[in-house]
Specification:
This protein is an alpha+beta fold and 477 residues long. It has 2 domains: 6-102, OB fold (Dihydrolipoamide Acetyltransferase, E2P), CATH 2.40.50; 123-168 and 203-464, Bira Bifunctional Protein, Domain 2 (BirA Bifunctional Protein, domain 2), CATH 3.30.930. It is built from 14 helices and 16 strands. The protein has helices at residues 6-10, 56-60, 111-116, 125-147, 206-216, 252-273, 275-290, 302-311, 319-327, 330-333, 350-361, 411-421, 429-436, 449-457, and strands spanning 16-29, 33-37, 45-48, 67-76, 84-95, 151-152, 158-159, 171-172, 199-201, 218-226, 239-248, 315-318, 365-371, 387-395, 399-406, 442-448. The strands form 3 sheets. An 8-stranded mixed sheet has the order 6-10-11-16-15-14-13-12, sandwiched between helices. A hairpin with a 7-residue loop joins strand 4 and strand 5 (84-95). It is globular. Bound molecules: 4-amino-1,4-dioxobutan-2-aminium adenosine-5'-monophosphate (4AD) and magnesium ion. Magnesium ion (MG) binds next to strand 15.
């Protein structure tokens, strides 16, 4: 008999004769009531076992974590909290679970413990909800750009270019590490490497994306990105997913409009599609907040926070204005910031970004026109000669969620900038070609997908919103 998803059974509009459900036992109470979950929804279906006519041996095998198949009528439930339940007539144990050893006991586990069991944590309510929301958000990303006629481009994972110039790359090589071939100068002979050159895992698909935008007009990428930055924070992963739209003829203002509209669309999309999961995550967050001191608690519940982002324009503030605000702020004067802001030109740390968003403006903020020397080489230089047309979007609880810019479309200015930074023109000959042949104003941005999932799910550690996190000293699973 074909099984029906538990979500569909619970959403049934009438009682049904003879249905079959398959899933994993969450709990088994009073030798009679199975709470069964199959991952289709956060809600379990109650299955009432006819314990008098079921062999004792079988009853003993209905343990937390076991995979079972139940057949019976879908009837109105007498119990509270659910409309329907299955009156089981046939029960089959598909896969036993050693109740003593199964790590996901029906009790509260710490997030640290769950991370160590990332292969099983997805069987909990919280992680089931997070991963379903993540999936719907991915779909929303495609839906937004496809509706607007953007072309989805798969930029390469292996590349010779360091788009961000931060040098935080994982090298890709097939050379024997214990016996590296050397050239005449005594350095490693990359001609003998697989690609005949030095290559890395990509830190961004932007540069390749730009070449496509200069032909297809509006494109986006959505793929894995790798950064070997040794920052063990709750917002950094060594492998994360990034969405990078790039649009020909858009200036920075149009770029900001696009980013804001896009973020609001995807958030609205999950609010509409994932009400049960978000409700659960909101409750989880409320519980977690209770253990924090009053001052650190969020003023808004999860859905309120999400709706707030939909209903309010992001505040657009120049870097220069932001520095003035930060310099005069109480935590700066009282030396509460780890990095004190003394002068224009300082790079902003996440403590500063969060102060601006959470304490000062109390809404998402778009900072623009940053000092040229703290931003990547490809950003367009402003008339003042010292700032670039960069924009970062800052979110409450997260800090930077988007980084983007209007690109330097002037060949000469770009080449000069690359020279000053020691970026090899020959290495990026193909990138420079876009400025040689039909160059035009264009802009784009990168949204860190996991940071968006963090915001939407109300989770606080980025390791908890990706299936199997890659972080320094950790590549388990
Ligand atoms: O600000 P970033 O470095 O910008 C770029 O890579 C540009 N090429 C994007 C573009 O203009 N097309 O990274 C973009 C976003 C950040 O705002 C952040 O949300 C996320 O990527 N991000 C990370 N997320 C998780 N772990 C990390 N280590 C991240 N580094 C950046
Ligand atoms: Mg950035």
């Amino acid at each position: 008999m074909r099984h029906t998803r538990i979500k569909d059974l619970l959403n049934s509009t009438s009682i049904l004769h003879e249905v079959n459900a398959k899933g994993w036992v969450r709990t088994f109470r009073n030798n009679q009531f199975i709470a069964l979950n199959d991952g289709s929804t956060i809600n379990n279906i109650q299955c009432v076992v006819d314990f008098e006519n079921t062999p004792e041996e079988t009853l003993k095998r209905i343990t937390t974590g076991a995979a079972v198949s139940v057949t019976g009528n879908l009837v109105e439930s007498k119990g509270a909290g659910q409309k329907y339940e299955i009156q089981v007539t046939k029960l089959e144990i598909l896969g036993d679970s050693d109740a003593e050893k199964f790590p996901m006991q029906p009790k509260k586990h710490s997030l640290e413990f769950l991370r160590e069991n990332a292969h099983l944590r997805v069987r909990t309510n919280a992680f089931g909800a997070i991963m379903r929301v993540r999936s719907v958000l991915s779909y929303a990303v495609h839906s937004y750009f496809q509706q607007k006629g953007f072309v989805y481009v798969n930029t390469p994972i292996i590349t010779g270019a360091d788009a961000e110039g931060a040098g935080e790359m994982f090298q890709v090589t097939s050379l024997p590490l214990d016996n590296l071939p050397k050239n005449e100068e005594g350095t490693i002979d990359y001609k003998k490497d697989f690609f005949g050159k030095h290559t890395n895992l990509t830190v961004s698909g932007q540069l390749e994306g730009e070449t496509f935008a200069m032909a297809l007009g509006q494109i986006y990428t959505f793929g894995p990105t790798f950064r070997a930055e040794n920052s063990n924070t709750s917002r950094h992963l060594a492998e994360f997913w990034m969405i990078e739209p790039e649009v020909a003829f858009n200036d920075l203002d149009a770029n900001m409009d696009l980013a804001e509209d896009f973020i609001q669309y995807v958030i609205k999309y999950v609010i509409d599609k994932c009400p049960d999961d978000l409700k659960f995550l909101e409750g989880r967050l409320l519980e977690e907040e209770k253990s924090k001191p009053q001052a650190e608690r969020s003023e808004m519940a999860l859905l309120e926070k999400l709706n707030f982002v939909l209903e309010n324009n992001f505040k657009r503030v120049s870097y220069t204005e932001a520095i003035d605000i930060l310099r005069d702020s109480t935590p700066n004067k009282k030396k509460k910031f780890q990095y004190i802001i003394n002068e224009w030109g300082a790079d902003l740390q996440s403590e500063h970004e969060r102060y601006l968003v959470e304490k000062h403006f109390k809404c998402p903020v778009i900072l623009f026109d940053y000092p040229a020397n703290i931003k990547a080489f490809y950003m367009r230089l402003n008339e003042d000669g010292k700032t670039v047309r960069a924009m970062d979007i800052l979110f409450p609880g997260i800090g930077e969620i988007v980084g983007g810019s209007q690109r330097e479309e002037r060949f000469d200015v770009l080449v000069e900038k690359m020279k000053a930074l020691g970026i090899d023109e020959e290495e990026l000959w193909w990138y420079l070609d876009t400025r040689r042949f039909g160059s035009a104003v264009h802009s784009g941005f990168g949204l860190g997908f996991e940071r968006l999932v963090l915001f939407v799910t109300g989770m606080t550690n980025i390791r908890d919103v990706i299936a199997f996190p890659r972080t320094p000293q950790n590549a388990e699973f």
